[in-house]
Amino acid sequence: MGESRSEGRLASGVRALATGLVYLVVLAFVVTGVSLVVSPGDDAAASGGGGGAGRERITLASLKPSTTRTTIPRAPKDPDPQGVTDGEVVHPLDVLKLYAAPGRRPFAKVTPKQFGDTWLPVVERRGGWSRVLLPSRPNGSTGWLRTRDVERATTPYLVRVHLGSRELELFLQGSSVGRWPVAIGAPETPTPPGRTFLLGQVVDEAQSFSPLILPLGSHSDTLDSYGGGPGTVALHGWPDDAVFGQAVSHGCIRVPSDALGALSQVPLGTLVLVDEQ
Question: What is the pLDDT of residues 224-245, one digit of tens each?
């Protein structure tokens, strides 16, 4: 009987110890789970395996802005550098995070203002996400935005620049409405080919070579700056008609005055396709 009572007390103690261990394990999981919970708005993603090790909150303040003055090497490349879109453009309603892919961690941010309002062409859609061309280096950079965070519009225009024939062609609703000879980059400072867009309109009556400058979302591949600026390629006029049809610029596209007048009507964000034809 004594041994039986001892065995009973021992079994009770073992059960109590086991219960306590289970409680501690459950508590540990609860605490660990709370420490790893990230709300959907935190935009955190695991960098690898390991049960969530590597998760982090990425804030807007920690991200580099995508502007004509910045370089963001991690930006995904344009998958179709000569592709035509349906004309959709978007305007960020606030400073927004840019993502390498839907649901991935953010790598940069975009601001609602650059040369006036920022309008970016949409080159791909996936669910509630829009992939846009970016104004930062390297040329052909893209990023994904949540579509719910942007204003959407459609531009009926398309601009084509043909480096081979040194001409610019303007399309409205798919029909050509003008074709002009232009000056392109010299061999040592070529105009970069690929898909870009109309980033802004700058009016400066004080400068002599063009009353209107239309910066694009692309940059010289050989020069870091033009006259102290960030080397942004632009469409602009030129006072000497002899340059048209020549490869003489630092990379910008010089256009006749009537072409500049037509281009002044083109909305920001409009796609500009620079090809080798």
Answer: 887 667 999 999 999 999 999 9
